[in-house]
Amino acid sequence: MEFSRQAAIELLKEYNKEPFHIKHALIVESVMRYFARKLGYGDEEEFWGIVGLLHDLDFEQFPEQHCIKQQEIMRERRIDERIIRATASHGYGITVDIKPEHTMEKVLYAVDELTGLIGAVALIRPSKSVSDLELKSVKKKYKSANFAAGCSREVIERGAEMLGWGLDDLIQKTIYAMREAEQKLNNEVFT
Question: Cα separation of 7 and 95, whole Å?
C-alpha cells in the first residue's frame, strides 16, 4: 500500500503533540532524504523520508514500548511492512531485536541519536544554528558524557560501525544533512 508523506505527518501528529518530538521527526525525515540522495538511493527518497518521520511514532505516548507499540499501530493501518521494519530497527539492542540490515536502516540507527546531539550543540552556539557548526565543536561536546546525556554515544558509534564509516565522517555528513534540514524547516510552516 502506498503511504504518502501527508498521511505520515497526520499519523505522527495523532500520536505526538509535543513540538519537540514533531520537530525531531521532521529533522530526521530531512536527514534521511539527504542520505538517500547522497548514497545513491534518490529514487527511494520519499520512502526514506517517511521512515524518518515515523521512526519515533510511539515514543511520546508509549516510551516504555518504544519501537514495539508503533509496529502494532502501523499494522492496524495496513502500512507497508518495510516501513514498519525500518522504523522498528532503530531500537535494535534497546527494545527490539530487529537488526538494521538495509543501508537505510543503518543510517536511521546512526543518525537518530546523533541529530539530537548535534542539535544540542547548535543550541548553545550564539547563532543557535548548524549553519556555522564545525566538526570540532561537536567532537568536543561529544566527549563530555554529561552533555546531551540522553543521546547514546554507544548507539551512534555502533551505527557508524554498521555503515563502515568513521565517527568523524558520520558526524560531518550528518552536520551537512542537518544544515539542509534546518534551511528546509525554516522555509516551511507546519501547523
Answer: 26
Q: How confident is the model at residue 122 (pLDDT cuts 50, 70, 90)?
A: very high
Q: What phi and psi values does residue 96 have, to the nearest 5 degrees?
A: -135, 165
Contact between 8 and 83 under an 8 Å Cβ cutoff? The reply is no
114 exposure class (CB count in 10 Å sphere: 0-12, 13-18, 19+): buried
Distance spanning both ends of the chain, measured CA to CA:
26
What is the residue whose three cell numbers read 502506498?
A: 2
| Residues in CB range of 105: below 8 A, 6 or more apart | 85, 86, 89, 90
CA atoms of 129 and 18, how far apart (whole Å): 21
Domain count, the chain: 1
In this predicted structure, the answer to whether residue 15 has a pLDDT above a threshold of 50 is yes
**Coil, strand or helix at 124:** coil
**Which domain covers residue 82, as residue numbers?**
5-187
Residue 92 has pLDDT above 60, yes or no: yes
Using the 8-state DSSP alphabet, how is residue 191 labeled? -
pTM for the whole structure:
0.94
